[in-house]
Write a structure and sequence with these properties.
With about 525 residues, this protein is mainly β. The chain has one helix and 38 strands. The termini are far apart.
Length: about 525
């Protein structure tokens, strides 16, 4: 780059040596740090005078290269004054320049300004997901505006109801939109707020609308109704009813019962509630226990209900107004009306029974008759019958039945049967021994028996004799007769009891007797 030096002098302004860039005037005018000195023994070359040129005002630089001790003179478009002779120019320039200006380092460029960043807006849709006896789970959505700096995370705080103190939950921001606060006290009511944060600052908090009570609701209350209760439960009157209904829910739900919309009578029904089931117990079921039962389990505002029906049945009453409509041949036609009391159950049919006057016993003639009339056939001619009807329901047959007042007689036909006459046989017989007495020998002190057998019609009378003397009520002797077998027991005989014994059988047609000899020995 070629530089051209020129010297100017403007009266009324400080003298300054200027360096002008001839090739690029837009770069402006730069101040020279030191004045130019003439070398000793040399003279500056002179140049011929030139026509003055119009001076264009330079554009001021955007960034100064260094500090200037004095303000630069303004450049005008006026023509400069005629230059002095070249020989005096260096001296005049040195005199006008004055003392040499000190040299200084350029100042550092200032840092570019950083635009100001805004904090994010508050989180939205803050809600409670789950509450236990010592914790609370929350969720929310990201703020609508996060700013140019982005989002660093969320800060949570909680405060107990009745206090103004907010306790920080997390020291460092979290990036998730779910958080579970631990180590809370059961029974406390807690408010929670969430703030979004970034480099621009912290947002306004999102706060729960209502305090949340810390308690455990792990499982919603739910009743598990047994399968056999999904239909009407039929029970027989007088029997016990014991129903176990399981349920679930944590903490333990509150259980309540009702019957047909009214509370249960504790005198008739007993209720036992456990942690996982409830029991309904009726010691002796009555027909008044029939109805629609409802059980409810509830935890705060959460509840579940189950309904089932119990029907207590009994045997029905007896049918009414049984009539004997007609009798012909071997057949009888009957008619009746249903019972007034059906036993709290539908009548399934009727059972017809007959009674023969000769036997006096009831026999079933027809079962499961669905009509209120029937015909009984296959009766015996010449016999007379009574009839009764029993009603039947789910519990069974009625205890009593309707009995016909009139007797139905089955008439015989014209052919009469005459049995043959046979003479009766006379079985009368005089006594006769079929087995006689045998002589016996025994020892003193040992009981012995005498046996024989006899037959006769009418039954003969048996008489025992000893040495032709009748043995009467003597405790030493015991006589027995069974089915014609006669026996005489002699208890602990002595030598005096030895002799001749006779058994005599006597009836109206005669008598018979047998004899034996008894020898009683004394041991040596």
């Amino acid at each position: 780059m070629c530089l051209r030096r020129s010297y100017k002098y403007q009266p009324g302004s400080p003298s300054t040596v200027l360096l002008q860039r001839g090739e690029n005037p837009s770069q402006g005018i730069m101040p020279v740090k030191a004045p130019i000195k003439k070398a000793p023994g040399k003279t500056l070359p002179t140049k011929p005078a030139k026509e003055p040129e119009a001076v264009v005002a330079p554009v001021e630089p955007q960034t100064p290269l260094g500090p200037v001790t004095e303000p630069a003179p303004k450049v005008t478009t006026e023509a400069p004054a005629p230059e002095a002779p070249a020989e005096n120019a260096p001296a005049e320039a040195a005199a006008l320049a004055g003392p040499q200006a000190p040299t200084t380092a350029p100042a550092p460029a200032p840092a570019p300004e950083i635009p100001k960043e805004d904090p994010p807006s508050q989180p939205v849709n803050l809600s409670v997901e789950e509450v236990t006896d010592s914790s609370m789970a929350l969720k929310w959505k990201a703020p609508e505006k996060v700013g140019a700096a982005g989002l660093d995370g969320y800060l949570l705080e909680y405060s107990k109801e009745g206090t103004d103190t907010w306790v920080p939950v997390n020291q460092e921001p979290i990036l998730t939109t779910r958080y579970k606060i631990q180590n809370l006290t059961t029974g406390d009511k807690v408010l929670v707020r969430v703030k979004a944060t970034n480099r621009g600052g912290v947002s306004n908090p999102a706060v729960l609308t209502q305090p949340v009570q810390i308690k455990e609701i792990v499982d919603r209350p739910k009743i598990r109704l047994p399968r056999h209760l999904r239909e009407t439960l039929v029970c027989v009157g007088g029997e016990a009813i014991n129903l176990l209904i399981p349920f679930q829910g944590k903490p333990r739900p509150q259980v309540s019962w009702s019957k047909n919309g009214q509370p249960l009578d504790p005198k008739q029904v007993s209720i036992r509630n456990g942690d996982k089931d409830t029991i309904l117990f009726i010691r002796k079921a009555e027909r008044t226990d029939s109805g629609k039962y409802e059980v409810t389990v509830q935890i705060d505002s959460l509840q579940d209900k189950a309904t089932f029906e119990i029907q207590v049945i009994e045997r029905p009453g007896a049918p009414q107004g049984i009539k004997l409509v007609d009798v012909w041949g071997f057949n009888v036609a009957l008619e009746w009306t249903p019972p007034k009391d059906n036993g709290n159950s539908d009548i399934k049919g009727f059972t017809v029974q007959k009674l023969d006057k000769k036997t006096g016993e009831w026999f079933t003639a027809l079962e499961h008759c669905h009509l209120t009339n029937c015909t009984v056939s296959d009766l015996v001619m010449g016999n007379s019958y009574y009839f009764r009807v029993l009603a039947e329901n789910q519990c069974g047959l009625s205890e009593n039945g309707a009995v016909t007042k009139d007797c139905a007689h089955i008439k015989k036909t014209g052919i009469m049967y005459k049995p043959l006459a046979y003479p009766e046989h006379d079985f009368s017989e005089a006594p006769k021994f079929t087995h006689a007495l045998n002589d016996r020998s025994t020892t003193t002190g040992y009981s012995t028996k005498l046996f024989c057998s006899v037959r006769g019609t009418p039954k003969p009378k048996i008489v025992w004799l000893k040495n032709q003397m009748e043995i009467r009520e003597d405790p030493k002797y015991r006589a027995l007769t069974n089915q014609g077998i006669c026996s005489l027991e002699i208890r602990k005989p002595s030598p005096f009891d030895g002799g001749v014994y006779t058994c005599k059988a006597i009836n109206s047609l005669g008598e018979a007797s047998v004899v034996c000899k008894l020898d009683v020995k004394v041991p040596q």
